[in-house]
Design goal:
The complex is a heterodimer of chains A (331) and B (418). By secondary structure, chain A is mostly helical. In chain A, 78% of the residues lie in helices and 1% in strands. Chain A has 14 helices and two strands; from the N terminus they run H-H-H-H-H-H-E-H-H-H-H-E-H-H-H-H. Chain A is globular, with a radius of gyration of 20 Å. Chain B has 14 helices and 15 strands. Chain B is an alpha/beta fold. Chain B has two domains: 17-155 and 290-372, Rossmann fold, CATH 3.40.50; 156-285, Response regulator (Rossmann fold), CATH 3.40.50.2300. The longest helix of chain B is centred in the C-terminal third of the chain and has 20 residues, at 316-335. The chains are: A mainly alpha (331), B alpha/beta (418). At the A-B interface, helix 1, helix 2, helix 7, helix 12 and helix 13 of A face helix 1, helix 4, helix 5 and helix 6 of B. Chain A: Pfam families: BPD_transp_2 (PF02653). Chain A: It is found in: Cell membrane. Chain A: InterPro entries: ABC_transp_permease (IPR001851), LivM-like (IPR043428). Chain A: GO terms for molecular function: branched-chain amino acid transmembrane transporter activity.
Chain lengths: 331, 418
């Protein structure tokens, strides 16, 4: 019950926020929400069920391209997003079947291949998918008239998707399936002895996580009103993994930190390079590569100083505070 | 669940305190009594950055030169440059940042066919003037659909027709083949070439994508197809890559390169020791040749380059960037002291502009296409220079004709008059 109340509370707060923020910050908030769908799904898969996927960027692409094609063909956004989730779920089931037979580095290898192959498919079927140039599509204006800020409308769409994802994944991880995930992660043999069907559990985790990534990708497409392979490169897949690790592996709150970092870090590094008056040639060279480097360095620093990620730090900070009696009785 | 609320609250705090620069004093965003802020997106990194990364600094240098002379109607021009790495997804992001956060008055010379195509609808919905796009795609010339978008380059079909026309007259009976970028750039260019030579007149047609840096298979296809003339609609990095790959496979056809990927300075730098491979390369262009040291425009731009661009290498990209800057200042002068987005667009549509370019600049209420003519170039002994007359044509079935009007000399002080 508390989970529903918290979701409603967050929805209210975020709704208010979209009225306070200027357009570009609303767009960034929406981008955070889109990434959150994917990082939350990946957290369930990697953090809770112990399977590493380097291909979630490609699953996001699957959702995004489905949304783009559906928008062009039918033009109903709820339908398009649903189709995006459905197609990605199917793709996730196929990869999940393979994944359940593989362990550690082998699984990483297969999902890595997915991340590499999917952008290539857009070039192979370029008359439908548009090659490197991608596809643009039309999104109906907000139902509140043309004067309603479009970015606020996009933020609402993205936040709805993110809150829904968080609620459903929160429910899932608190259920007996969630306990099965963690049992499989901690010790497969022990889990099997407890009567848990390991392969089935792993496939379920992969499918759920793929569906969330598909929704995130679909929302990302809605934000850009276009899809192109460049948005879903291998780098994105790696970024997603880094984000959930830095955010705090294993808890959905960590996924929120991760999603925020994915948007904030490149922005911050760009601002830093603007502040320091670098020689133009050096600034040019840094511009594209610096966010990557900063992300890598952040990952290393966080892993050394706070192996639990940002959420681990938060938890530690909170444990130093005097306990608040009524709220502090968690699970 | 309580654990999920905390990061959300932090997010509220984080984004809530971001600053909003606001609109400033003037009527239009990005315009104050003392400043005009415009923005652009360019590949400063990535597969298309070779050469192109020097365009925005050159435009900036021209603006600094104009600013030092007092600016336009008392306003200084500031150009914000964002790197999109030639990746359409990044372009979406940085153009929104320029328009929504930095509140630029206009987007000037955004570079790239695949990249800029993705932001057309966004810019149109925000009513942001989208001037002089750095690409020859025909998409920019749709006044009904995109009233604020204007091209600069001759469109790729115009160029393709002129290249095809040259081949038909001067290289008759040769087997012609074509390599194009796998987007509107390559497609529009091929449409122009086949408009003149016919579909059967191009024996082998190949495409490449910028995300795959290997053109071995394409070169193989040309070699086994016994191609004698290969027309390249390629960005500079891929022009160099193709010519280099072909040489390694012992294949030396007559190359004819689109103006956007045929700058000798850029290519010779990319090829390094292999630069002699460029000898005899044909191409087309419409701006003064960097090698034409006696051209008054080149002299002017060289002076500005030394003074305001830290003496960066002077090549076709420098001339291109400064020519865009010159045209923008012309348009600002014409728009007058009372500058709004509407008055700016009206000023461009009024047309009648001339500058360093060789062909006619075609701006009117129903033509947003930019330059309409080109002249052939050839590399002879490390010097890329023009030969023959300037040609003009349209992107439809119109004939290719000579354009006899020479560009005027630049104004004495280098700044267009009001």
């Amino acid at each position: 019950m508390r989970r529903y109340a918290a979701t409603l509370g967050a929805a209210g707060a975020l709704l208010g926020l979209t009225y306070l923020l200027p357009a570009f910050q609303n767009y960034q908030l929406a981008t955070v929400a889109a990434y959150l769908c994917a990082t939350a799904g990946l957290t369930v898969l990697t953090g809770q069920c112990g399977q590493l996927s380097l291909g979630h960027g490609a699953l996001m692409a699957t959702g995004a391209y489905t949304v783009a094609l559906m928008q062009s063909a039918v033009g109903s956004l709820p339908l398009s997003l649903a189709a995006g989730v459905a197609v990605t779920t199917a793709a996730g089931a196929v990869i999940g079947l393979a994944a359940a037979r593989l362990r550690g580095p082998y699984l990483a290898g297969v999902t890595l291949a997915v991340a590499v192959v999917v952008p290539g498919i857009t070039t192979m079927f370029d008359d439908v998918l548009g090659g490197d140039q991608g596809r643009t599509f039309y999104l109906a204006p907000p139902p509140f008239g043309y004067d309603f800020p479009f970015e606020r409308w996009q933020a609402w769409i993205a936040l709805t998707a993110a809150l829904l994802t968080m609620l459903l994944l929160g429910n899932l991880t608190a259920s007996r399936y969630g306990r099965a995930f963690r049992a499989v992660r901690d010790d497969e043999v022990a889990a099997r002895l407890c009567g848990i069907h390991v392969a089935r559990t792993q496939i379920l985790a992969f499918v759920v996580s793929a569906a969330a990534a598909g929704l995130g990708g679909g929302v990302l497409a809605v934000l850009a009103l276009s899809v192109s392979p460049g948005a879903f490169s291998l780098t994105l897949s790696l970024f997603l993994v880094m984000a959930i690790v830095v955010g705090g592996l294993g808890s959905l709150a960590g996924a929120v930190w991760g999603a925020i970092l994915l948007v904030a870090l490149p922005d911050l590094t760009a601002r830093v390079t603007e502040v320091f008056a670098l020689p133009p040639a050096l600034a040019q060279r840094l511009e594209g590569n610096l966010p990557l480097a900063v992300f890598g360095i952040t990952l290393i620093v966080v892993m050394i100083l706070a192996p639990g990620g940002i959420q681990g730090l938060v938890r530690r900070a909170r444990s130093l505070l005097p306990p608040v009696p009524s709220v502090n009785r968690g699970r | 669940m309580r654990t999920h609320v905390l990061p959300l609250a932090m997010l509220l705090a984080l984004v809530g305190c971001s600053s909003d620069p606001g609109g400033g004093g003037g009527g239009a965003p990005g315009v104050t009594d003392t400043e005009i802020v415009v923005g652009t997106h360019m590949p400063l990194t990535g597969p298309a950055s070779a050469g192109y990364s020097q365009i925005a600094p050159a435009t900036k240098a021209y603006f600094d030169f104009v600013n030092a002379a007092g600016g336009v109607h008392g306003r200084k021009i500031t150009l914000k440059v964002k790197d999109d790495g030639y990746n359409p997804a990044n372009t979406q992001q940085v153009v929104r940042e320029l328009v929504l956060q930095d509140r630029v008055f206009a987007i000037l010379n955004g570079l790239g066919t695949p990249t800029h195509t993705g932001v057309l609808d966004f810019l149109n919905s925000q009513r942001v003037p989208d001037l002089f796009v750095a690409s020859g795609s025909r998409s920019w010339d749709q006044p009904g659909k995109y009233p604020g978008t204007f091209g600069f380059n001759p469109d790729y079909t115009v160029e393709g027709k002129i290249l095809g026309w040259y081949v038909q007259r001067n290289l008759p009976g040769k087997k012609v083949c074509f390599l194009g970028q796998d987007d509107d750039f390559g497609r529009d260019s091929l449409a122009g070439v086949t408009r003149v030579l016919g579909d059967a007149g191009v024996a082998v047609k190949q495409t490449y994508t910028t995300s795959v840096t290997n053109v071995g298979p394409q070169v193989d296809a040309f070699k086994s197809g016994a191609c004698e003339v290969v027309v390249l609609a390629t960005v500079p990095g891929f022009t160099a890559l193709t010519i280099g790959t072909a040489a390694r496979q012992g294949f030396r056809p007559q190359w004819i390169v689109s103006n956007v990927g045929g700058d000798y300075g850029t290519l010779s730098k990319s090829l390094g020791d292999a630069a002699p491979l460029l000898e005899g390369m044909l191409g087309a262009n419409y701006l003064p040749a960097a090698a034409a040291a006696s051209d008054p425009w080149v002299r002017l731009f060289q002076r500005i380059n030394t003074q305001f661009n830290a003496g960066a290498p002077f090549d076709g990209n420098t001339i291109y960037g400064m020519s865009v800057g010159y045209l923008f200042v012309q348009v600002l002068q014409a728009a007058g002291r009372d500058l709004t987005r509407e008055s700016l667009i009206e000023a461009v549509e009024k047309g009648g502009y001339t500058g360093p370019g060789l062909g006619p600049l075609r701006f009117s209420a129903d033509d947003h296409s930019g330059y309409g003519g080109l002249r052939m170039t050839r590399v002879t002994g490390t010097v890329q220079d023009y030969f023959g007359p300037t040609y003009e044509t349209d992107s439809e079935a119109g004939p290719v004709t000579e354009y006899p009007v020479a560009p005027p000399a630049p104004p004495a002080n280098g700044v267009p008059a009001a």
